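Long-time lurker, finally posting.

We've been working with Arginine decarboxylase (Trapa natans) and I want a structural starting point before designing mutants. I don't trust myself to interpret raw outputs, so I'm hoping someone here can both generate the structure tokens and explain anything notable. Sequence follows.
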Amino acid sequence: MPTLEQCIDDIALDHSLPLSPFSAGDNANVGFPDTTTVHSFEKSDSWSTSLSYTLYRVDGWGKPYFAVNPAGNISVRTHGQDTFPSQDIDLMDVVNKVTDPISDGGLGLCAPFIVRFPEILKHRLESLQSAFNSAVSSHGYGAHYQGVYPVKCNQDRFIVEDIVKFGKPFRFGLEAGSKTELLLAMHCLSKGSPDALLVCNGFKDAEYISLALLSRKLAFNTVVVFEQEEELDLVIELSRKLNVRPVVGVRAKLRTIHSGHFGSTSGEKGKFGLTTAQILRIVGKLGQEGMLNCLQLLHFHIGSQIPTTALVADSASEAAHIYCELVRLGASMRIIDVGGGLGIDYDGSKSSDSDLSVSYTLEEYAATIVGTLMSVCDQRSVKHPVISSESGRATVSHHPVLIFEVFSSSTNEQCNSAKSAPFPNVENFLDSLGEEAQADYKSLVAAACRGDNEACLHHADRLKQHTVLRFKQGGLTMEQLASVDDLHSMVSRAAGEPSSHVPMRTYRVNLSIFTSMPSYWGFGHLFPIMPIHHLDQRPTVRGVISDLTLDSDGKIATYIGGESSLPLHEMDRKKCGRYYLGMFLGGAYEEALGGLHNMLGDPNVVRLETDAGSPQGFVLTRLLPGPSCGDLLRSLHHEPKCMVEDFKRRAEELGVENGELSGFAAETLSGGLAQFFANWPYLVLT
Ligand SMILES: Cc1ncc(COP(=O)(O)O)c(C=O)c1O
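Top reply, 14 upvotes:
Generated this for you. Predicted structure of Arginine decarboxylase:
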């Protein structure tokens, strides 16, 4: 009697089902749905780095900073399109430098780690400034652009310091949204341009306002932007008390609606900003107090990731009219601050259909704002205001790459028939299946003979369901259950969608999604994720990334392009060595939002710059180690020192009671335990 497996193979040979997928091994093509390019991948016999470049959409999201080099590794061009070929940094050279043992000249660190490229940050800032400069000069606009960086996007000291340093020549400033951020911004801006703006946004109490006013005493160019009407009385009272002439602004609640996820608080009913009536009352009161000349700035922010220039223009036009009205009402208006919203193309689609992309370039964004403000102001015969923006995402997203390592992979479906559980005698097995399952099996065979793939899938699903039920009732062995799982997988691969023709694996990575990709966890925000090496080789499997935490949310179920898995290379640590993946464009918000789930903590951080004099073309300029187990415990009010003492006492007591541990041994044990507090919380992969 043939086994169940042979039966199905016979069916396949009977040309009712495609044979090859049943034996889909490691060299099966990855199924790429939809596009014509995708089909050409399937057909091509050879593989090349340019196919990887297109497959992972690097041409869409990565330009001008990321590319695939001839060695099949990601290369980083820190000066964007101005990077000389000799300045390309091979990301695997960086990985080797970071992970090589100290004795070999490396840092001896483990992944995950963030590689920061401050030169990219500089390039982003300069590109933003130059886009506005060009728009100003091509339109003949009568004022300049002077941006601020909203520190909430990434408050890391060295990033904010870099932004202040790189932006000093063009008076780049900072935006704070809380007392702590204001302290940070003041300190960093003390090395910046004296004309740089320090914009104080957010809800404010007397302490926040006092600090902002005091910062003016320290000669910072601080503007207190009213988020609520109540803040006005505090400013009036405290500025008199502290004897400071304040500069204030109003945040207008625009009626323009940004309909994406990031615009959910926009519009008339939105959460933030002042209504028209509130602005009018503020103007009235400032006038009564003889302070109308303190009102100099109009701010609005309709949300992050504005998808189109049409929406940019709509909001800028509404705001420009409010600005002109404030001028008419007698305020000494000077600056219009258009907020954030300048978007990033995370999926490389250059479309306006999702929160993951935008349909414009930096230059188009700047030209839209400048053109719109100019047209309204000219219409109203109002002097052109200085333009500021609070572009956070567009400034810091590109500059870091998060690198993490796969530590194991497992099959979701049994792809390798050699590993399958032995099939039982089919007659006995069919007997034990029960009537319904037997009927399913027969229908499956019949459907396979007809070549009806849809029916095959249907009957295989039902067979599996009935078999599981039978197992739960104690009517089947584990081997029998595994056989039906295998049969189900084979049928799915043979009769299912093209993407199920390839092995599906779970790739377990040494990372916490909660800590390093909180926006994915929180609201499904996607980032480009891809292997950073082996890109000269065909990816032969599809993987779903699952993290180190023991949480069902700790996996990535959707990838850019809407795919539910990622084309990956076979991961066999023994044969192929380590396998590194990178997450790109995550420089804004992710680090600031990341939490302590499972107490894994922040990854290590290295910063590097290009250096023509060094063999690999770069130098590491700073290492910022992630927290140790002890640091993490301390951050949650545990006290490692006391914990070690307690372990020691316990060891000594046990030693006395049982005679098992001498005093010396107890000391050694607790000393050994103390060492664990200094350890790296992520897996140390050898
Ligand atoms: C008031 C304000 N300004 C600026 C930003 C930064 O926006 P983006 O990162 O889209 O530039 C935000 C973020 O939502 C914000 O709330």
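Before you design anything, note these points.
The pocket of pyridoxal-5'-phosphate is lined by residues 150, 153, 201, 301, 304, 339-342, 390-394, 588 (CB under 6 Å).
Residues 1-40, 412-424 have pLDDT under 50 and may be disordered.
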